[in-house]
Each structure stands twice: as C-alpha cells, then as structure tokens.
Amino acid sequence: MLQRIQTVYLLFAVLCYTAMFILPIRTAFTNDSTGVNEPIMYLYHNGVLSILAGLGILVALITIFLYGNRRLQAMLALLGAFNAAGLLALIGLGMSQHPENIDHWGLGVIMPLFVLVFSLLAFRGIKRDDKLVRSADRLR
Length: 140
Hints:
By secondary structure, the protein is mainly alpha-helical. Helices cover about 65% and strands about 10% of the residues.
C-alpha cells in the first residue's frame, strides 16, 4: 500500500541501495595535470558487498508487499536495518585496511547509513500501524 509512510521509507531505502552501485565508495587524486578525482572503488568491485546490497534491495522490496502481515514486515524491516549496519561495517573495515591512496571517501560510503535510518523509520511506522490496529480491535 503506497499510502503508508513505511512504504515510502522502504522505497527510499531501495533507492539508496541502488545509488550505492552507481556512486564510488572511495576516490583518490590522480597524478596527471588535470587533478580530477578518479573513482577507485565501486560497490560492484567487491562481491560480498554487492551480494549484501542486492539482498538488501530484495528484502526491502519484499517488505513493501507484506503489508497484510505486519509482524513479518516488522521483522524484515529490522533485518534490512541489520543488513545496512553490516554493509556499513564491512565498508568501514575495507577502508581501514587499505588507507593508502585514499584522499576522499565517495558518496557511496554514506548510503548504507541512509538505508539504516530509512529501515528503522519503516520499522517504527509498522509498529505504529500495529499499535493502531490493536487499539481498534480492543474497541470492538
């Protein structure tokens, strides 16, 4: 259901996951005369990161269409948040293991943080809907 705010949050999470495949994770200055930043590492250069991001997209899309089962939807939203936290940790670990030639972190580094926030906001929205339905059931 597109009327629910958690659906919007999950769609934003999918967009952030997709942006991770496009944006560089780290960049470095080249030694040529132009001085233009050259992307060094993208997400798809690392198989584990690509698989985790692909699973994150899949989990977020499945979570959107489980609006009838709020308990499972909430669990999958939390799973998406843990996936984003793991992805963020693996990217940070990879960046700390290869500190040479890193002048700038790319925008792809902060995308898992956005996914984490959007997943937690979606979880909060799902829990709020569940609470509303339970209070309406008590009134009947």
